[in-house]
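Q: What would this complex look like in 3D?
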Amino acid sequence: MTLALQLVGIRKSFDGVLALDGASFESRAGEVHALLGENGAGKSSLMNVAAGLYAPDAGSILVNGVTASLSGPADARQHGIGMVHQHFKLVKPFTVAENILLANRRPHFSSGIKDIRAAIRKQADELKFDIDPDRQVDTLTLAEQQQVEIVKVLVGGANILILDEPTAVLTDTESEGLLEIVRRLALSGAAVVLVTHKLHEVKRCADTVTIMRGGKTVARLDPRLASADKLTELTVGQTVPLPPRTRHQGGPTRLNVGALTYARGDGRVMLNHTSFHVCAGEIYGIAGVSGNGQAELAEALIGAIEPASGEIWVDSAGDISCANNDRRREAAIAAIPADRYAYALAGGLSLADNFAIAHIRSGRYGGATLVNRSAMRREAVAAIKDYDVQGARSVNQKASLLSGGNAQKLVIAREFSREPNVVVAHSPSRGLDARACAAIHQRLIAARERGAAIVLISEDLDEVLGLSDRIGVMTRGVIVSEFERPADRQAIGRAMVDHA
Amino acid sequence: MHDLPRQAVSPPTVVSAPASRHFGRITLDVRQDLSQWKQAVFVGGSLILGLAVSVAILAVAGISPVTLGTELADVLNAESLRGVLVQAAPLILVGLGASLAFKIGFWNLGLEGQMILGGIFAAAISIYDIGPPSTRLLMMGSAAAVGGALWVLLVALLKIRFRVNEIIATLLLNYVAMYFLFHLLYGAWQDAKTAFPQSSPFRPFERLTDVGYGINSGLIIAVAGVLVAGWLVHLSRIGFYARFISANPRMAKIVGVPVQAMTVCIIAASGACAGLAGFVNVASQEGRLTQSFANGYVFSGVLIAFLSRNDPIVVAVVGFLIAMLFITGQTLQVFYQIPFTMVQLIEAIIVMAVASSEFFIRHRIRWIR
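A: Here is my prediction, written as structure tokens for the whole assembly.
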């Protein structure tokens, strides 16, 4: 059988930085081919080359054995290559049919939209999707939007389908559904490329896996024949074990959240008398299906929103639920928000600035009249080294140029540089690769050893189970039940679903 | 997730032009960073291009480049230079006002209204004869700063409290200020002697006069403003905070920046600068409150802030150059019957040229074979 898609010796650099260094890839019709690698390994870059978004500096692209020169996404579509991006490319106020028409142009709008509606129904039936072509996109869930993206490329006639980190935005159940769809697409004869950094997805659903590291392809093998350890080793280079942990001693209460309530602008109640407490030297995990108030809880704790009622009591500062910046600072809360670029970093400013901002008020970098820039830079350099923030050419570089994991390390370097009393971490390893994830977890455990009270809010049950001393399950804005370590996974799972 | 964060780590996006297979193709890369020096070259290059277009337009309008050259050279002789420096003072102040507000992403387009309020407050001190003569100028200046600040704080309050768009609010308040000025000048404050719609002239000790070497005391106020704003932006803690407020206000709040207080302070400073510009204009050039002393300044202020990239020190230089353009424009108007709107046209062309240089600073165009 000929290869549906073949990429040979692809090189691509961005402003002097080599992102792809002679990477190769091949995928056959009728198989699911996983592209595995850490963040920044070059997976997305390579697939963007295949989708015609990036023009490679060197190397060739073959579609069905014939050399193709792709001058843009439209050209790639002509060759039957369709890509579903991690960040969906949908116009939110448009309907599903309008979005799909936009990507697959027809000469006339009114006849075109009819044509598209029929095509959507046909594709949706085949894949057992429940998509209403006349729904507006912003009323759809993320999983539904993803289905629209898939239908969009299929309506365009794609038989080579690239899915970039498709499960990153989905819940566990939704991910299950998606992986099934992926299998079904391959069965129907398409060549499916699944870009991912999750091992279990590769094991579960791929026929072949290509592993990338540092812009190069390092291996291609059958995932069913390789052990998980072997795959990890190939992706990471070396395996990173979690440090052993001492049992929780049970210190005094550090943080007490009492009957916290909050309603969103549209009136939906997100926190409904949420209560829990965390002791010194304890990691309190909050598990739950996403959208049950976890995000609002995190935002209230770090001061991004003001709760309607209830208290957030911290032993060093008292109730800070509506406190100003000064009181909050006294409470020494380290904030590790889920959306780093919205809540924790100013991407347009330098690493040094982003590091120093937390301390500027304490006078560590000079008084109000004169800011001591060299002291800032010196400490930022030290912290970046200490926390192993990679990819920083200098501390004057913009923070937005860091990859996800390194950006997260920078956030943690800053937040932990002032001995936190309470740590609020929301999905701290979201989007991070195995190594960065382990580094973040180590830091959380170290803070716990030092006696900080840690609230770990995560939709990743493995993360919560692995780290927490106590676990609270949150549904509909309330902690419905609590579990001591070692917690029973099944019982937590039931609690998450039962009350939902 | 589909909702990209404002400052996402954007992997360099590439837009590809249609391919011409035999000749390779043009691609656009997003630049990761570019040295200050090279950025200056791009901006400088665009500026020269914009000036060249302006010269061409003037040539079509009947001013040959040679004439233009002589006139421009003429502006720098002692007598005209004095005029340029007098004109530069309010321009620099209004430019500072714009750049301070833009620094934190507050689009203050009400600089004219704030100038007018500044002028009115200063004139009120003169008209109601408040305070001893020795401190009169100081009082007028302070009153002007307060007037300008109050006028913009009205909008700051609307924005923070009710999320009113400041662009529309500041812009429309210009008209309110203007008609209030007319109300005074056609009514209570009308000059009884001439019956013109302007106030009676200020007393000699209420005027900003020359301090020697052809330098007006208004310019000293402007330079002091530049130094204070430069310190504020580059050296002080407030300036450090301000960068975070404009880059990511939500994040700034969480890491402990007093966002609201800082925003209000900087907006007030912006209005105060514009108010001072009004004071300088009425107390040096006009010598009384007139109907049109603030006309056209909002555009010039925005232009100066834009060209100087909101850097107060550069504002001084750009303000001076725009003052030169103003004075040359006046000469051309008088001697060559070129409408003064030509000066605004040239300003607009320069803005567009410099704005387009931004594209080349952010992108690199490459030829791939």
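A: To summarize the key features: Chain B touches chain A through 47 residues (CB under 8 Å). Chain B has two domains: 26-62+340-369, 88-337.
Q: Very helpful, thank you.
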